[in-house]
């Protein structure tokens, strides 16, 4: 099954580099990476060029559009629409994925299911101190390292960090009392079901778009299953200058409407783009896009 990892990013070159390094350690590598870039400057392109030079065996495409404010859903839809993969895994470009992350998502993949995880959040000082070697050695997922940074104060965070054996963690995922919402920083589904709902709603900016998307997937018969404790990722801290309280208030109404109405398809979604112009043959190792 061809699998593509879609990484969203915006003007966070250091975080993107560390995230890409974590992808190189996967026990089951994605067949390709799509960097879905919401209008970053040249520093991001330089990171991608550096990664391609260092890891030419990993096919990577850089999908970019101009900066028009927070348009993450739009660039993700372009990534989904232009992909040739059968299965798609989504993370943000400030998330370091555990070596078993892709393998776990594929282990539980089903056409009538989307998978959704959560994040182990680092604070700002710890984020600033993370090195390439911390990622490549796997130190950022070591419980001792996380404990020393003060990250494991909450019980649920300790569970996410692999406190219990996998069998018990998997059982906890199935029964843990938390909503089965889509998490764009740790989610996956078959591309066919993403196309069926016309992708993410591009009228929605920061705050609520993921939840509305998950509701429409569920309305279409694709139910959520958590990988909350068995597909961990570490989130690098950053400011959120794009957060807009008024937009979030409007989004709550859109979420409620999707839930009440049984809505499935986004009006402003994938089919609004010229996919023929975006589509390209799968990259051979070492090629650029």
What do you see in this structure?
The structure is a single chain. The chain is an alpha/beta fold and 289 residues long. It has helices spanning 13-23, 42-54, 72-82, 101-107, 124-129, 132-136, 143-148, 155-160, 166-175, 191-196, 209-219, 245-261, 275-278, and strands at residues 3-9, 32-37, 60-64, 87-92, 95-97, 113-116, 120-121, 186-190, 223-226, 233-235. The protein is built from 13 helices and 10 strands. The longest helix has 17 residues, at 245-261. The model is unreliable at 280-289 (pLDDT under 50).
Quaternary class: single chain
Please estimate the helix content: 25-40%
Which secondary-structure class do the elements indicate? alpha/beta
Largest sheet: 7 strands, mixed
Q: How are helices and strands ordered from N to C? A: EHEHEHEEHEEHHHHHEHHEEHH
Task: Write a compact overview of the structure shown.
The protein has 13 helices and ten strands.
Provide keyphrases for this structure:
289 residues, alpha/beta, 3-stranded mixed β-sheet, 10 strands, disordered C terminus
Write the layout of secondary structure elements.
Elements: E1 3-9, H1 13-23, E2 32-37, H2 42-54, E3 60-64, H3 72-82, E4 87-92, E5 95-97, H4 101-107, E6 113-116, E7 120-121, H5 124-129, H6 132-136, H7 143-148, H8 155-160, H9 166-175, E8 186-190, H10 191-196, H11 209-219, E9 223-226, E10 233-235, H12 245-261, H13 275-278
């Amino acid at each position: 099954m061809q699998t593509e990892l879609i990484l969203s990013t915006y003007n966070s070159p250091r975080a993107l580099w560390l995230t890409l390094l974590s992808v190189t350690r996967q026990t089951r590598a994605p067949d390709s990476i799509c960097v879905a870039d919401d209008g970053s400057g040249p520093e991001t392109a330089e990171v991608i060029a550096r990664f391609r030079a260092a890891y030419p065996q990993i096919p990577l495409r850089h999908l970019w559009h101009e900066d028009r404010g927070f348009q993450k859903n739009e660039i993700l839809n372009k990534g989904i629409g232009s992909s040739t993969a059968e299965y798609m895994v989504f993370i943000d470009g400030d998330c370091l994925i555990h070596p078993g992350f892709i393998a776990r998502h594929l282990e539980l993949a089903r056409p009538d299911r989307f998978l959704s995880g959560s994040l182990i959040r680092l604070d700002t000082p710890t984020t600033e101190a993370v090195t390439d070697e911390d990622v490549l050695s796997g130190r950022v997922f070591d419980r001792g390292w996380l404990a020393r940074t003060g990250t494991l104060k909450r019980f649920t965070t300790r569970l996410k960090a692999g406190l219990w054996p996998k069998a018990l963690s998997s059982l906890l995922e199935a029964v843990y009392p938390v909503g089965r919402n889509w998490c764009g920083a740790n989610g996956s589904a078959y591309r066919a079901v993403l196309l069926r709902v016309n992708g993410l709603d591009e009228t929605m900016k920061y705050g609520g778009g993921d939840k509305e998307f998950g509701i429409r997937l569920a309305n279409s018969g694709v139910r959520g299953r958590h990988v909350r404790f068995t597909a961990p990722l570490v989130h690098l801290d950053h400011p959120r200058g794009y957060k807009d309280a008024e937009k979030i208030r409007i989004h709550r109404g859109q979420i409620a409407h999707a839930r009440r109405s049984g809505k499935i398809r986004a009006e402003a979604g994938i089919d609004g783009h010229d996919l023929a112009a975006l589509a390209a043959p799968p990259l051979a190792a070492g090629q650029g896009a």
